[in-house]
């Protein structure tokens, strides 16, 4: 309802703006160039004889070299979400140097993260739009609604004409362009792309010290996993009973990761609904009513009944979970791309568990995000007088050179390169004289660390930043990864219905599966549980998802 009110307010604001002078709408198509008349004594050519026209570019663009982007200095307004670790954008050396390189001066409105949604909604309601968003936090509703009203400029042609680096990334990542294309066929925003698969996946972690203490091998099947966890639960560490499996976040990761062993999760983590994936017939299915999902719940319930699961697994937060890790009593946890979530004191004991083969022979790994992250990060509005220049401005961040500049900063100041050609952060970052953390020190130079920026993350840069356990975890699952994580897009009407349907259905599923596992709800009530979900609108939900998936496949 709130989104609908914003939509109506925005439409009214745009009507008022359209009646006032001052802002050119970049969404309006430029007039077709006139054909010059033939010269004297020169025969007119027929349409068939007309040679293809050379592409024309605005005179303000520098077409002779990469930089500067424009032949004269232009000033534009940018709107951004500023992370807690970031300095003001106007004070960041990387962005100031980039202004000098490009001839594009930016008047930043960089809003602190805790105030960003409120400020964004006020901006949408009043129609006071910038020339562009970067780290813009536009959700799918914003994109489709603002795009349909002409506030956001379709980027398709701008990408093809001015985004050579982004086009290279599209070539490297099949399906990437389709995943950011809205049902209308338009692309309204650009995302962050992450080329480091290791940092995108979540892993299962097991205490190698406990395996060694009990003389046990790494489990490879769900049955072996159950037996190993049972042995853990009957043992002690430092005089305290071992909690064989613990977690946080209401235990959601346990259902998701163990679900891979029953063939669930084959569309990855970023399909907008964790209970949606592709069924054996190639269509979208709702996994939480599948008979195999009942088997999964019964397996997890058996672990609960055997005392394998931490009794607080469905209620505790990160602090309680980490405190148990500090006591060195957690046998395994099924979450996170590094074991650091367990706490620094004992994280070195944990190694990644390879994907477990399930009772029906399923062995795959779908607990991975899409390479497309932070959709809605960069968008150009109708207020931009030179959208071509802004597309070239953002395109640099999708190149290797631009990514280094954005993420590493300035060579000789924030990073350097050793004799072997390896980049490393300098003391200004890793041992900051002002006592700043590494993230805070990086955030003084550039917004590149903190996520949500339209740019490309190269794997070699992540190897500098991330713990080696991330890549050890990836080695354990690499051969079992799904091909790619699917990102679906929806029309405004579909989004409105999905918001209502998924809120009720998903909440009911999460609550019910915990009750099944803990015995608060008998498994004899499974059929009633399925019928209740059907009454809540399951058929309509599947119809919407299948329509979106069909569009994705057709593109």
CATH class group of the largest domain: Alpha Beta
The end-to-end distance, rounded to whole angstroms, is 32 Å
CATH topology label of the largest domain = D-Maltodextrin-Binding Protein, domain 2
The spatial strand order of the largest sheet comes to 2-1-3-13-4-16
CATH level-two architecture of the largest domain: 3-Layer(aba) Sandwich
**CATH homologous superfamily (4th level) name of the largest domain:** Periplasmic binding protein-like II
- Structural class comes to alpha/beta
Number of strands: 16
Per DSSP, the total helix count is: 22
Helical content class: 40-55%
Radius of gyration: 27 Å
Mean pLDDT: 89
Low-confidence runs of at least 5 consecutive residues: 5-9, 11-47
Principal-axis shape equals: globular
Described by strand count, sense and barrel closure, the largest sheet is: 6 strands, mixed
Classify the oligomer: single chain
Strand content: 5-15%
What number of domains?
2
């Amino acid at each position: 309802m709130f989104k609908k009110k914003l939509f109506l307010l925005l439409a009214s604001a745009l009507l008022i703006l359209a009646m006032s002078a001052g802002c050119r709408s970049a969404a309006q198509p430029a007039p077709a160039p006139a054909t010059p008349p033939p010269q004297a004594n020169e025969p007119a050519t027929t349409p068939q004889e007309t040679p293809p026209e050379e592409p024309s570019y605005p005179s303000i663009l520098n077409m002779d070299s990469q930089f500067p982007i424009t032949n004269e200095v232009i000033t534009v307004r940018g709107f951004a979400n500023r992370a807690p670790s970031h300095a003001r954008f106007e004070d960041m050396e990387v962005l100031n140097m980039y202004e000098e390189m490009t001839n594009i001066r930016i008047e930043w409105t960089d809003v602190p993260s805790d105030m960003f949604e409120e400020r964004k909604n006020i901006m949408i309601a009043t129609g006071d739009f910038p020339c562009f968003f970067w780290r813009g936090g536009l959700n799918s509703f914003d994109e489709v609604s603002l795009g349909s009203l002409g506030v956001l400029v379709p980027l398709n042609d701008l990408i093809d004409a001015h985004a050579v680096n982004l086009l290279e990334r599209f070539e490297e990542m099949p399906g990437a362009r389709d995943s950011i294309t809205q049902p209308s066929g338009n692309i309204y925003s650009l995302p962050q792309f992450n080329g480091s698969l290791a940092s995108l996946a979540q892993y299962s972690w097991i205490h190698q010290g406990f395996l060694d203490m009990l003389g046990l091998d790494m489990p490879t099947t769900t049955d072996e996993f159950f037996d190993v966890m049972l042995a853990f639960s009957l043992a002690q560490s430092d005089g305290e009973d071992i909690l064989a499996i613990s977690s946080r976040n209401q235990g959601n990761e346990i259902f998701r990761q163990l679900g891979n062993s029953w063939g669930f999760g084959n569309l990855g983590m970023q399909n907008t609904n964790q209970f949606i994936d592709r069924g054996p017939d190639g269509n979208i299915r709702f996994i939480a009513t599948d008979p195999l999902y009942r088997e999964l719940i019964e397996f997890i319930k058996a672990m609960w009944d055997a005392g394998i699961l931490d009794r607080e697994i469905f209620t505790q937060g990160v602090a309680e979970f980490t405190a148990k890790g500090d006591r060195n009593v957690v046998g395994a946890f099924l979450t996170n791309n590094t074991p650091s979530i367990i706490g620094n004191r004992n994280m070195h004991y944990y190694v990644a568990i390879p994907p477990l083969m399930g009772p029906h022979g399923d062995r795959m790994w779908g607990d991975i995000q899409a390479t497309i992250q932070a959709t809605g990060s960069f968008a150009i509005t109708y207020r931009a007088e030179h959208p071509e220049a802004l597309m070239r401005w953002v395109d640099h961040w999708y190149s290797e050179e631009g990514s280094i500049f954005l993420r590493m900063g300035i060579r000789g100041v924030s990073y350097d390169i050793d004799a072997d050609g390896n980049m490393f952060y300098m003391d200004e970052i890793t041992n900051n004289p002002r006592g700043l953390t590494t993230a805070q020190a990086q955030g003084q130079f550039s917004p590149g660390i903190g996520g949500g920026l339209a740019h490309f993350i190269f794997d070699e840069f992540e190897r500098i930043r991330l713990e080696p356990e991330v890549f050890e975890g990836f080695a354990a699952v690499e051969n079992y990864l799904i091909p790619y994580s699917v990102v679906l897009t929806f029309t405004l009407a579909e989004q409105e219905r999905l918001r209502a349907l998924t809120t009720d259905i998903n909440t009911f599923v999460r609550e019910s599966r915990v009750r099944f596992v803990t015995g608060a709800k008998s498994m004899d009530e499974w059929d009633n549980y399925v019928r209740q979900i059907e009454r809540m609108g399951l058929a309509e939900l599947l119809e919407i998802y299948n329509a979106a998936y069909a569009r994705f496949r057709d593109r």
